[in-house]
Amino acid sequence: MPSDTAALPRPATRPPVAPGRRTSWRRRKSSTLFVVVGVITILTVFPLVWMVTSSFKGPDEVLSTDLLPSAPTVDNFEYVFSAAPFGRYLFNSFVVSATVTVVALFFHSMAAYALARLRFPGRDAIFLGIFSTLLVTAPVVLVPLFLVVHRLGLLNSYAGLILPAIFSAYGIFLLRQFYLAIPAELEEAAVLDGCGYWRIYWSIILPLSKSIFAALAVLFFLANWNAFLWPLVATTDSDLQVVQLGIASFQEQNTADWQYVLAAATVAAVPTLLAFAIFQRRIVESIKTSGLK
Amino acid sequence: MSTPTTSPAEVAARPGAHRAGDEARTDGASARARRERRAAYLFMAPNLIGLTVFVAIPMLLSIVLAFFRVDGFGGYDFVGFANFERMFSDPYFLSSLGRTLLYLVVLVPGLFVSGLGLALLVRHKFPLVGFFRTALFAPNVVSLVVVALIWQFLLTDDVGFIARLLDRVGLTAPSWLGDPAFALPTVMVITIWFSMGYYMLIFLAGLQDIPREYYEVASIDGAGPWTTFRNITWPLLKPTSFFILLTSTIAVMTGGLDLLVILTGGGPANSTTLVIYYVYQQAFVYGEFGYAAAISSFLVLILLAWSALLFALTKGGRFTHAQ
Amino acid sequence: MPSPPGHLPGLPPGPTSVERPSRRRFLGLSAALTGAVALPGLLSACGGSRTASASDPLQFWNFYAPAPNEDPVVMARAAWMQDTVDRWNAENEQQIELVYAPVLGSEKLATAFSAGEGPDIFLISPGDIARYLNGNVLAELTPYMTQEAVDDFFADNMATRMIGDKVYALPMEIEPLALYYSRPAFEQAGLSEGDLPATWDDLIAVSDRLVAAGQGGLVFPTAQDYYQNFVWYPWMWQGGGEVVTDGGRRSGFDSDGAVGALRLWKETVDLGLTPRVPPASNDIVTSFSEGYASIWQSGIWSIQDFERKAPDFDYGVIPLPVPDGGESATVLGGWAFAANAMGRNPDEAARFCAWALGSMDDDGIARVANWCIDAKRDVSPRRSSLEYGSRAGGYDGEHMRLFRDEIFPTGRGEPRYPPVIYKAVSDAIQSCQLAGGDPEDQAATAAQAIDAYLTTYEGVDLA
């Protein structure tokens, strides 16, 4: 059951309304939401339960339609870490995903700030040009990208995994949409104080970006953590293998070891879920003001 | 777009409006404009260079590729428009295009509504909400290989979980993935299942972008949930909605490939061969990169036209009369 | 899906001429474009490129080694690959390096080849070999083999890797198909060994009794891919059907053999005997042990799957049943070593393939035999190795012996068809099996499409 304190808004934002009536209304709303969202969540998560329970099954029953293992075992997890260099895969994926996420957030927000808040000739044309790079279709662009990265001598290197993943119109586009909605007064004040554009970006725009950065960080990290096709094509060195390639290697021809695939996938899901669990609060709770108060 | 009850919303929804007076000042204005321009290019430089090298050039090359016959082994013969001509007399391509249209018409609104709906529900504070948000996002973090496996298990004919469940209430489940009539709808449901948390996340961030005072003002004015949504949330969410509408259209048309490859292989009887799958098949199964490039160039054209239309209708996604 | 006669849409025209002056024009263009932005000194220092001098080791892309994990079976296969390469490296100046490339990602191979950066040595399946042969990318292996060695390979299985009397790939294994059945399921349905199906009618009757008794049904593949065609061919051959006949000039698909096989697969689904999607994610061992299926058409490789995952499970193997008046037939799968003619050192790559699988000395014979009995459970592609493997006891088991003595002799090599023909056949199978198509109409449509393609086809012999 919802507890009173959890259901209450923070004191700072509590509206000046008769407290008693307000509280009961909020409690009712809160428990309705709890039930509705709870039911949706159960339905959504249910399919994943099978993934988790099946990762504790032995090889002979992993694909059975029984939900629970008859003899639960952690062998699969032990195996994934002891028999395959899964730790190494996790490390590689982490290096690539974290680097891409941090650098991309920084670069993308810079471009988005310029596109949303600054005026310069050709702004709309440049934005459309950037936007149109979103329209690439992966299967077709793979060979040309391979040629480019090969030409740059970046195949089989971290740089070859990281650099092509940093640049995407997606983050620029999303951030631009957010910066468009920032009240102009905040910037105006800074301009009057004689701040340069970098200063405005650094001390006004970036602090206002916390919630969208949190959201984008999750999305960027996820996209790179789950990347499969590009790492497959761009690396042959086994020291550079990433998590998704590691999972795929348990699906050998004729002898797919699904119990390992599921255990590895369960392990691989944890970092992004953790990132989301940490960031979700920030996505929703960093309160933005209009600057008018 | 009008927000009758709340005046601050109007101000915020019109960024750039304040600058109208700037044009009048001439003296320092031109120097400032120069500085602004230089700053803008510097801010964009890293991205422009990176996007050019790693996205634009490969993309241009892929369009160039559409005019070549490719043998898949490093042999490239210039063939003019032959690949494009072939496209329009290719029943596989034409039927995949029709299927993709249906897919689009169902999925884009489906993803929008489910994402927004979830975001509106979990933006509030109630017990365990952090857990619920994480759980709703969870399908997204699982690799598509495993997503495909999970659903194969749930949807197995006769002995699968869902077949047994329906059996218990006296219904006979169809073969979800083995019957051409059901396969595409099944793929749609699975796609919504694992994508809705993603769009929920973006909507949540978009909702967060709306200053809280507006809701407080509305609440003091005694506005109900629907009025609040219509007058505050919806108008101020437009930049986000615009983003989602465009990117989900692109994602639905050019993404989701892994799931099709692993779950259905375009079957049964071609019933889940969407354009993107057909492109994939031509490129990697048949080695016909030139033809694949022609089809995907066509997709880029359609999407470009659709985006241009949306941009025109929304003043470049700004929804205002910016200069 | 009707298609206008004379033109086959959606599918490539026949391969064009062999020599192309403009061959590298696109690659040149891409090099120019990227070269312009490549800030050479800065960027090329960051990572190693694969284009290296001829003295670098040749890359051998395979899905066995280095072993991705420590499963004993995976390790045994990887060890065989590693031993073979180590042995070569000890005796030869041109070194070879194994690169693990999961089979799941054929994108990797396709991308590398399109960029002119294909591996020097790789594994290839007959289903895909026609494209490679027509693209002139396979190095000829015959110059590095004795005639005795060429003749040592089972000719019929070898034919799909040859053009005329020239060898372009060497099979490492032969994988015939048969029917597996679950003895517990048969017992519970009151069926005995005497009830095992010998004809198509028997097969339907027995499956019907199994399903009626609450047991699992008969599994044929249903996914739309190369594998389904591969599994389906023997049913067509049994009744005399052919995809391509008359020396490659026309399709033999509009025939009783093809129509009959299409009808068989259609009926088993319509009668509720064959599931539209194979249970347990296509895993025969789980399906048998959980009772989801009772009969399953699969290859000799399933013997090892049972050994690994359910060694105590009691299953049997029988040859594919035949139609009335038909002849026994099965199809022989298996992968082969091939050398890239456009690689860095095609001569040495070809010599390696020929040495690894086609040496007539005792080591060479034993190497091929051991792959098929120790690392895997396959029929050896060479007479001498099959004898060696038999003497070593590799075929003493009930199932291995049956595969060697009864099933393999009725087999034909997996045919090599270009994508267009594969697709025409696949559409016919899919339509009949899963979408209510009429076998006669579908066979006629496919035959028409194949005929249209053959009129313009220039390339390797397909019949």
From TrEMBL, chain A:
Gene3D superfamilies: MetI-like. It is found in: Cell membrane. It holds the Pfam family BPD_transp_1. The chain crosses the membrane at residues 31-52, 89-113, 125-146, 158-179, 200-223, 258-279. It comes from the Bacteria. The keyword Cell membrane applies. It is a multi-pass membrane protein. Keywords: Cell membrane, Membrane, Transmembrane, Transmembrane helix, Transport. One of its GO terms (biological process) is transmembrane transport. Residues 1-11 have a biased composition (Low complexity). One of its GO terms (cellular component) is plasma membrane. Residues 1-24 are annotated as: Disordered. Signal peptide: none annotated. Residues 90-279 form the ABC transmembrane type-1 domain. Belongs to the binding-protein-dependent transport system permease family. This is Carbohydrate ABC transporter permease. The lineage of its organism: Bacteria, Bacillati, Actinomycetota, Actinomycetes, Jiangellales.
UniProtKB/TrEMBL annotation, chain B:
One of its GO terms (cellular component) is plasma membrane. It comes from the Bacteria. SUPFAM superfamilies: MetI-like. It is a multi-pass membrane protein. Keywords: Cell membrane, Membrane, Transmembrane, Transmembrane helix, Transport. The keyword Translocase does not apply. The keyword DNA repair does not apply. Residues 1-31 are annotated as: Disordered. Gene3D superfamilies: MetI-like. GO terms for biological process: transmembrane transport. Residues 97-310 form the ABC transmembrane type-1 domain. The chain crosses the membrane at residues 40-68, 101-122, 134-154, 182-205, 242-269, 289-313. It is found in: Cell membrane. Pfam families: BPD_transp_1 (PF00528). Belongs to the binding-protein-dependent transport system permease family. This is Sugar ABC transporter permease. It comes from Jiangella rhizosphaerae.
UniProtKB/TrEMBL annotation, chain C:
InterPro entries: Bact_solute-bd_prot1, SBP, TAT_signal. Pfam families: SBP_bac_1. Gene3D superfamilies: Periplasmic binding protein-like II (3.40.190.10). Residues 1-20 are annotated as: Disordered. This is Extracellular solute-binding protein. Transmembrane segments: none annotated. CDD domains: PBP2_TMBP_like. Residues 1-15 have a biased composition (Pro residues).
